[in-house]
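Chapter summary example.
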Amino acid sequence: MIDKSTVRRAGLAASAMAVLLTALPAATATAAPAAAARGAVTAAAAPAWCPTVAGHRVDCDRIDRPLVTGEPGLGRVKVSYAVVRHTAPGPAKGTVAVNPGGPGETAIDKAEAFARGLGALLKDHDLLLLDPRGTGRSERIPCGVTDTEYRFGTRAQQRAAVVRCAANLGPRATGYTSAATADDLDAVRARLGVPRLSLYGLSYGTYLMPVYASRHPAHVRSLVLSGAFPLALDPLARPSARAVSLALKRVCGRSVPASCDGDRAVRDLAATAARLRARPMTVRITTGHGVHEKRFGEDKLANLLFEAASSGVGMHPRQPSLLGRLPHALHRFAGGDPAPLRRLVQEEGAGAGTVDQAPYIAVTCNDYRRAWSKDASPAERRRQYAAALAAVRPGEHGAFSARGFTEGTTDAGDVCIGWPREHTPAPQPVRPALPDVPVLVLSGDLDANTPDASGRKAARQFRDSRFLSVPNTGHVPELEPSGCATRISAHFLRTGGPGDTSCLRTLPPIAVRPVRG
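The structure predicted for these 517 residues follows.
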């Protein structure tokens, strides 16, 4: 988009692998000796932050990079990386570089999860993990905006937070872009002497890795993009809005025994959205750092349904998930009882934290496609955005109004409208030349965050691409517990083809709370 501070392509320092990390058993006390027996780097030889991965040697280092190329006065940044080495004798057959999402998510601290997920691939492939500049071990940057403030705030408060973030970063904000991170990754590749990388992007990583491929095409072997969206993303988030209704219809239609009616669930959603648009409710949410009041209107309903409800879907298919409980809560709200929906909002918000959102805000506001010109004045930007909203046709945002849904996003709509012109780099090209290499794109068919429609568009960016819609999963498909999606991805990274995909047909539907009356 998953840990509540890590939800999405559009979701507050998102990482799909964060959930996988918590699902995997912790390494035992005997893991370090096992790794040492294979020549693992020890604490004495490696930085203190270098991870231990059972059975593998791990090499860690930092590379000194200009914050902004050609602007020495803005300083430099040290970018940290870890290489989980293959176990078989002889040279590696390839190197897989992974980005777990965000923007703003770290990778190095998830080395064990990635190594377990990729499994046998690491017998003869190395794994390269890089913390993007401004995150984790790569000189984390603050701008004074926490994820709780950003998630719980009204749209006006979110816009103000973006302006404050930009002011606190100053001219250094120019250095936090996908292009800069892609160039950092290539500098590490060159230092390691790796001729070509296999790129594996999850969520926001499906944006970053094509940026890398466009800037360094000769150094790309293949790509796997999971939970994908295209470089030419819709600044008004229409694919996600429409996918919410589709996800409700699918979970109802697949429930056995039939727990709800999909068409009625969509009608209940439309009624709930209209009621909250006219009269938002106030929800008190207790987090680990205090009690907060959240103004829950149509915008926050949209965020709950397309972002939060897509997270971790299919990970525990027999247990009630947020998505599986929504048809019941929406039906009760439409009938006059807000209690079930209120409880879902409180449960979802309880995980909000205090992580600074500087990397997320800077990258999304610098890079993502907007409904206004970056060179326009603030007043002209507002006029251009108002015109874009006015041009939206009825039904393009599904059961939501155009304004209500776009204000529920944290990386689209008008949230970045106050990002300053003077510290904004040139727009990221949305249709760059890309290398003719094998590409696999996976989307969960219950994911409204990066839905099938966005995944198909991401696949069409490449000539030699294959798209797979993974049933009964959300954002991202690799979180399903059977290992089917991960095996397909790993096979593709090894061979350039998906291999046998028949296991996708065996993934079970998720549990749905029955709707009565």
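To summarize the output: The CA atoms of residues 160 and 274 lie 26 Å apart.
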